[in-house]
Amino acid sequence: MISPRSEAELAEAVASATGPLLPKGGGTRMIGDVAGEVLDISGLSGVNLYEPAALTLVVQAGTPLAQINSLLAGERQRLGFEPPDFRALLGRDGVSTIGGIAAANASGPRRVQSGAARDAMLGIRCVDGQGVAISSGGRVMKNVTGYDLVKLMAGSFGTLAVLSEVSLKVQSIPEAEVTLVLDGLDDRAGLIALRRALGSPYDVSGAARAGGRSYIRLEGMAGSVAYRAGRLRALFDATLAEGAQSAAIWADIRDVSPLHGRAGDIWRLSVLPSDAAEIVATLLADSGGDGQRDVVYDWGGGLVWLTLPAGLDGNLRKALQGRGAAIKLRGAGAAPFARQSDQVSALSSALKAQFDPFGRFAQGVF
What we know:
The strands form 4 sheets. Strands 13-10-12-11-15-16-14-17 form an 8-stranded antiparallel sheet, with helices on both faces. Strands 3-4-8-6-7 form a 5-stranded antiparallel sheet, with helices on both faces. Strands 1-2 form a two-stranded parallel ribbon. The protein is 32% helix and 26% strand. By secondary structure, the chain is α+β, with helices and mostly antiparallel strands.
């Protein structure tokens, strides 16, 4: 294992590598079995800049998420993209780091309102496969010079370069939060309700379904939240969960807690929200699964977390049939990327050749 303590040491380690490297922060988001010497960046840790008034945070890539959350909470601020904790879902130990979150573009339920991790990333520093340190972006949103390497690296899972520093925009914690809980609906009707809420003018910050219930989250100033909740309750027969109760619901959705401890393969599907119920019904019919225990819908049905028995990969591909993308996160053949078209695969290969011409970075994750 190689454990650099600075960006300069990181660059030297990459430049002198004689075999594949596996970038790793806390190891909480590793998917599949990947060969390579571990390049442990947890030593690159610490806050380089925090300006609460400017909603700006610059941290080294190995900084633990818990440390960042604690720092931001002291100023009643947060990471708006709501990074999930998948340790229980994937059976991982370790400490989640901001570099791993950025490399995986890890984003939670609030993505429907605030965007993904890549949308909060203002700039990065990284080391490419030749051991060259690269800086891209800045510390303010108006910086648009050069190629948008920030968004390229977000979601690249450490296959193009190793992040050493991440600049982020943060947001203030809202005054109030409530969740409308819709019960007694089947998946089709429950997802229709979520799409209707998302299409309303009431600024929904979460729309998910799990355990036979649909959840609609509202955040903001207390008066605004009360008004919007009232308007949505006029459309739906719903009860209200407020404050800590609401937050607990969304922590479970964020971390896909309903699937914790479930046997079988874990899949993540990206589909049209209007197709989600039909696709899942087909898969559950093939597998004998239980929708209330084996499925979590997020983003109004655009993101589906699903447990299936091992060996049903072909059934899933058939059910999708070009209607979306599927990634196996746990089970035989698990990998961080969905299957790509020939055109996308060619582009990915060209990017890999540009950033990592010697093939020093294994196809792994943080």
